Amino acid sequence: MSRWTWISTMESGGADRRREAGLRLHEYHDGANEAGIKIPRTQPMIITYFLDPEPPHRIRDTQGSWFLGGDYRYPSDGVPTPTNPDVRVDYWDDMVFYYRALGGSPTLQQWVRYICDTRVGQWS
To answer: What is the model's pTM?
Structure first.
């Protein structure tokens, strides 16, 4: 089984705070790491939303994770440590995951309906 290298950050709060989290990941790629080197951006980037379990299912926390490909794909490749304490290096085991490419700017209610009901094929 392989392990794959990702950088991740968590954030609580609204959309502005989530943008800040995304910027932290960009900064890591731009050299905010102990080696001070730029690391090419790769795909995929995964955004995980943690919702309150009770209605109205507000977003409680958001985690952004970016795959580190190229020279830093595996844990043994000497992944540079982030200089920002809110960014961490994660190692994920092999997995199969499915995603939905979503477009537009949905409301929170549309997000919850879309995520919770796999039969929904588009925003409505």
So the answer is: 0.70
